[in-house]
Write a structure and sequence with these properties.
Helix content is about 65%, strand content about 0%. With about 220 residues, the protein is mainly alpha-helical.
Length: about 220
Protein backbone atom coordinates (compact mmCIF):
# COMPACT_ATOMS: atom_id res chain seq x y z
CA UNK A 1 0.00 0.00 0.00
CA UNK A 2 2.88 2.37 0.76
CA UNK A 3 4.44 1.48 -2.59
CA UNK A 4 1.18 2.27 -4.38
CA UNK A 5 0.69 5.52 -2.47
CA UNK A 6 4.20 6.72 -3.29
CA UNK A 7 4.08 5.77 -6.97
CA UNK A 8 6.38 2.78 -6.69
CA UNK A 9 9.03 4.38 -4.49
CA UNK A 10 9.44 1.21 -2.45
CA UNK A 11 9.65 -1.15 -5.42
CA UNK A 12 9.19 -4.90 -5.65
CA UNK A 13 12.53 -5.62 -3.99
CA UNK A 14 11.71 -3.17 -1.22
CA UNK A 15 8.39 -4.86 -0.57
CA UNK A 16 10.07 -8.27 -0.36
CA UNK A 17 12.69 -6.85 2.00
CA UNK A 18 9.94 -5.39 4.18
CA UNK A 19 8.31 -8.82 4.35
CA UNK A 20 11.61 -10.36 5.44
CA UNK A 21 12.51 -7.74 8.03
CA UNK A 22 9.13 -7.63 9.73
CA UNK A 23 9.04 -11.41 10.10
CA UNK A 24 12.59 -11.44 11.51
CA UNK A 25 11.67 -8.72 13.98
CA UNK A 26 8.43 -10.34 15.10
CA UNK A 27 9.93 -13.79 15.57
CA UNK A 28 12.70 -12.31 17.71
CA UNK A 29 10.13 -10.22 19.61
CA UNK A 30 7.43 -12.77 20.42
CA UNK A 31 8.92 -16.15 19.59
CA UNK A 32 9.66 -16.79 23.27
CA UNK A 33 6.16 -15.68 24.30
CA UNK A 34 3.81 -17.38 21.86
CA UNK A 35 6.01 -19.19 19.37
CA UNK A 36 5.48 -16.35 16.89
CA UNK A 37 2.62 -18.14 15.18
CA UNK A 38 1.78 -15.40 12.71
CA UNK A 39 0.29 -17.80 10.21
CA UNK A 40 -2.74 -20.12 10.54
CA UNK A 41 -1.21 -22.60 8.10
CA UNK A 42 1.89 -22.90 10.29
CA UNK A 43 -0.27 -23.51 13.35
CA UNK A 44 -2.31 -26.21 11.58
CA UNK A 45 0.85 -27.82 10.20
CA UNK A 46 2.45 -28.03 13.65
CA UNK A 47 -0.78 -29.55 14.96
CA UNK A 48 -0.82 -32.10 12.13
CA UNK A 49 2.50 -33.57 13.33
CA UNK A 50 1.54 -33.39 17.02
CA UNK A 51 3.74 -30.41 17.79
CA UNK A 52 0.91 -28.10 18.81
CA UNK A 53 -2.08 -28.80 21.09
CA UNK A 54 -5.41 -29.22 19.33
CA UNK A 55 -7.18 -27.03 21.89
CA UNK A 56 -5.02 -24.02 20.98
CA UNK A 57 -5.48 -24.16 17.20
CA UNK A 58 -8.79 -22.28 16.99
CA UNK A 59 -7.76 -19.51 19.45
CA UNK A 60 -4.48 -18.99 17.59
CA UNK A 61 -6.15 -18.89 14.16
CA UNK A 62 -8.80 -16.50 15.46
CA UNK A 63 -6.11 -14.22 16.91
CA UNK A 64 -4.14 -14.30 13.65
CA UNK A 65 -7.18 -13.40 11.54
CA UNK A 66 -8.36 -10.69 13.95
CA UNK A 67 -4.87 -9.20 13.95
CA UNK A 68 -4.83 -9.19 10.16
CA UNK A 69 -8.20 -7.44 10.01
CA UNK A 70 -7.07 -4.88 12.58
CA UNK A 71 -3.86 -4.24 10.64
CA UNK A 72 -5.71 -3.81 7.35
CA UNK A 73 -8.22 -1.48 8.98
CA UNK A 74 -5.43 0.65 10.43
CA UNK A 75 -3.74 0.89 7.03
CA UNK A 76 -6.94 1.97 5.30
CA UNK A 77 -7.50 4.63 7.94
CA UNK A 78 -3.92 5.90 7.55
CA UNK A 79 -3.40 5.59 3.80
CA UNK A 80 -6.85 5.31 2.25
CA UNK A 81 -8.02 2.68 -0.25
CA UNK A 82 -4.77 2.46 -2.20
CA UNK A 83 -3.01 -0.53 -3.70
CA UNK A 84 -6.14 -2.67 -3.43
CA UNK A 85 -5.53 -2.59 0.33
CA UNK A 86 -2.53 -4.86 -0.10
CA UNK A 87 -4.80 -7.75 -1.08
CA UNK A 88 -3.25 -10.89 -2.53
CA UNK A 89 -4.84 -11.46 -5.92
CA UNK A 90 -3.62 -13.84 -8.63
CA UNK A 91 -1.91 -12.19 -11.59
CA UNK A 92 -1.71 -15.55 -13.35
CA UNK A 93 -4.31 -18.28 -14.01
CA UNK A 94 -5.81 -19.65 -10.80
CA UNK A 95 -4.39 -23.14 -11.29
CA UNK A 96 -0.89 -21.71 -11.69
CA UNK A 97 -1.45 -19.38 -8.75
CA UNK A 98 -2.38 -22.34 -6.58
CA UNK A 99 0.82 -24.08 -7.64
CA UNK A 100 2.99 -21.06 -6.89
CA UNK A 101 1.44 -20.53 -3.47
CA UNK A 102 1.73 -24.23 -2.73
CA UNK A 103 5.43 -24.42 -3.58
CA UNK A 104 6.30 -21.23 -1.71
CA UNK A 105 4.36 -22.36 1.35
CA UNK A 106 5.96 -25.80 1.26
CA UNK A 107 9.44 -24.31 1.18
CA UNK A 108 8.67 -21.91 4.01
CA UNK A 109 7.26 -24.62 6.29
CA UNK A 110 10.15 -26.95 5.55
CA UNK A 111 12.55 -24.27 6.77
CA UNK A 112 10.37 -23.56 9.81
CA UNK A 113 10.30 -27.24 10.75
CA UNK A 114 14.08 -27.42 10.51
CA UNK A 115 14.90 -24.37 12.60
CA UNK A 116 12.04 -24.65 15.09
CA UNK A 117 11.91 -28.37 15.85
CA UNK A 118 15.35 -29.82 15.22
CA UNK A 119 17.83 -29.44 18.07
CA UNK A 120 20.74 -30.00 15.68
CA UNK A 121 20.18 -26.54 14.18
CA UNK A 122 22.25 -23.77 15.77
CA UNK A 123 20.40 -21.62 18.29
CA UNK A 124 19.41 -18.06 17.45
CA UNK A 125 19.13 -18.42 13.70
CA UNK A 126 15.43 -19.32 13.39
CA UNK A 127 14.21 -15.72 12.92
CA UNK A 128 16.80 -15.05 10.23
CA UNK A 129 16.13 -18.30 8.40
CA UNK A 130 12.36 -17.86 8.45
CA UNK A 131 12.42 -14.15 7.64
CA UNK A 132 14.86 -14.52 4.76
CA UNK A 133 12.82 -17.38 3.34
CA UNK A 134 9.70 -15.20 3.43
CA UNK A 135 11.66 -12.41 1.72
CA UNK A 136 12.93 -14.71 -1.01
CA UNK A 137 9.44 -16.10 -1.61
CA UNK A 138 8.03 -12.57 -1.81
CA UNK A 139 10.77 -11.59 -4.24
CA UNK A 140 10.04 -14.57 -6.46
CA UNK A 141 6.27 -14.85 -6.21
CA UNK A 142 5.04 -11.44 -5.15
CA UNK A 143 4.28 -10.24 -8.65
CA UNK A 144 2.54 -13.53 -9.49
CA UNK A 145 0.24 -14.18 -6.54
CA UNK A 146 1.20 -11.70 -3.84
CA UNK A 147 3.30 -14.47 -2.22
CA UNK A 148 0.96 -14.72 0.72
CA UNK A 149 1.79 -18.17 2.14
CA UNK A 150 -0.42 -17.05 5.01
CA UNK A 151 -4.23 -17.28 5.09
CA UNK A 152 -4.51 -14.53 7.71
CA UNK A 153 -2.35 -12.14 5.69
CA UNK A 154 -4.77 -12.63 2.77
CA UNK A 155 -7.90 -12.62 4.94
CA UNK A 156 -7.29 -9.17 6.47
CA UNK A 157 -7.41 -7.05 3.30
CA UNK A 158 -10.01 -9.33 1.70
CA UNK A 159 -12.34 -8.83 4.66
CA UNK A 160 -11.80 -5.08 4.96
CA UNK A 161 -11.97 -4.37 1.23
CA UNK A 162 -14.38 -7.07 0.12
CA UNK A 163 -11.79 -8.46 -2.30
CA UNK A 164 -12.61 -12.16 -2.32
CA UNK A 165 -11.52 -13.15 -5.84
CA UNK A 166 -9.83 -16.61 -5.70
CA UNK A 167 -9.52 -16.19 -1.96
CA UNK A 168 -9.80 -19.94 -1.42
CA UNK A 169 -6.36 -20.34 -3.01
CA UNK A 170 -4.77 -18.48 -0.12
CA UNK A 171 -6.22 -20.92 2.40
CA UNK A 172 -6.09 -24.22 0.54
CA UNK A 173 -2.59 -23.92 -0.89
CA UNK A 174 -0.71 -22.81 2.25
CA UNK A 175 -2.50 -25.23 4.59
CA UNK A 176 -2.09 -28.34 2.42
CA UNK A 177 1.48 -27.43 1.47
CA UNK A 178 2.59 -26.77 5.03
CA UNK A 179 1.03 -29.98 6.31
CA UNK A 180 2.91 -31.86 3.58
CA UNK A 181 6.18 -30.10 4.45
CA UNK A 182 5.79 -30.80 8.16
CA UNK A 183 5.11 -34.48 7.53
CA UNK A 184 8.07 -34.75 5.16
CA UNK A 185 10.45 -33.17 7.64
CA UNK A 186 9.26 -35.53 10.37
CA UNK A 187 10.08 -38.42 8.05
CA UNK A 188 13.53 -37.02 7.30
CA UNK A 189 14.35 -36.14 10.90
CA UNK A 190 15.79 -39.56 11.69
CA UNK A 191 18.04 -39.62 8.65
CA UNK A 192 21.67 -40.26 9.51
CA UNK A 193 23.88 -37.20 9.76
CA UNK A 194 26.69 -36.81 7.22
CA UNK A 195 29.92 -38.53 8.24
CA UNK A 196 32.49 -36.57 10.19
CA UNK A 197 35.86 -35.73 8.67
CA UNK A 198 37.38 -38.74 10.45
CA UNK A 199 34.76 -41.05 8.93
CA UNK A 200 35.08 -39.85 5.36
CA UNK A 201 36.41 -42.49 2.99
CA UNK A 202 38.66 -41.25 0.19
CA UNK A 203 36.97 -41.84 -3.12
CA UNK A 204 38.38 -41.89 -6.63
CA UNK A 205 36.62 -42.11 -9.94
CA UNK A 206 36.44 -45.89 -9.57
CA UNK A 207 35.21 -45.90 -5.99
CA UNK A 208 36.83 -45.96 -2.52
CA UNK A 209 40.59 -45.73 -2.40
CA UNK A 210 41.93 -48.53 -0.26
CA UNK A 211 44.41 -47.56 2.43
CA UNK A 212 46.94 -50.09 1.16
CA UNK A 213 46.79 -48.64 -2.33
CA UNK A 214 47.10 -45.13 -1.00
CA UNK A 215 50.17 -46.06 1.03
CA UNK A 216 51.73 -47.78 -1.96
Amino acid sequence: MVDALTGGAVGHVGVALAFALVVIAMVYAVGHLSGAHLNPAVTVAFWSVKRFPAGDVIPYVAAQCCGAVAGSTALVMALGPVGKLGATLPMIPIRAAFGVEWLLSFGLMFVIMAVATDERVADGFAPLAVGLTVGFCALMGGSLTGASMNPARSFGPAFVGGLWYAHWVYWAAPITAMIAAAILYERLRDAEAPPTVQEVVSVGVQGPILAEAAEG
